[in-house]
Design goal:
alpha/beta, 5-stranded mixed sheet, 266 residues
Length: 266
Amino acid sequence: MKKYFTFGVTSALIVGALLPTKVASAQDIDYSAYLDTVDISGTFTIVMNDERPITVNIVKNTPDGVISYYEEMLEESGSYTFYLDSCEFDEDNTKEYISSYTVTIQNAVDVTCYHKLEDLIIYDPGFLSEEIGITITNTDYICNVNSTSVTTAAEHISTESTLDVMMTDDGTYTQSFDLGLFYYDFLLGDVDDNGTVNVRDAYSVMVETANINAGIGGSFTDIQNVAADVNYDGGLTIQDAYKIMVYYSEIAAGNDIDWDYINENY
């Protein structure tokens, strides 16, 4: 089995929160550009149980930083498999290579709804599991993703639960688990929840931000705060009100635009 070392991971490989995602409408995911196909020894399979789109970000943890393996958007229910390789690093001089990955699964509509799976281990073929005395040949994770709308911040914390851990006679280590993504059901910019984005929404945001800045305090609900944060910066400012007004004006003029266009151009 070929092993190699990677030095000097540049900032271009560091995963950022705003990296663009590639839409994967088919169930086959292209190999990562950084994946050594010779060393494929693991998979991460997502089973989407509804039609609400999610984004999937998978990075490989290395001593020099993280390497972005996948940034994908999944829009259809079904099964999607991401291929992963074993680690190039043998920090403990054991000659057994373990690769660590971090997977972030996020609701593509409600960006505040996400769950991070840290330290997912891909074992190098030939790694001996001392607990059961079997040599691991492949490491497979199966993640069942379920999305449910909620109404309060207390319900908005996504959770995971392990269903099964299994080692087969051929050395395949499999772990399956459920992931619950709890999202706010809202229309971005529609602060009063009347089904449209209009001047009243922009005015409401202006009043809310003025009250907050004056120390009076805000009155928006959890969902209103998320719906009003149209520039995704995690808080309410006059910029959100301005962009809601621009969005309304563009739509009223008959222009076919979306929030990505507004945030990129205003």
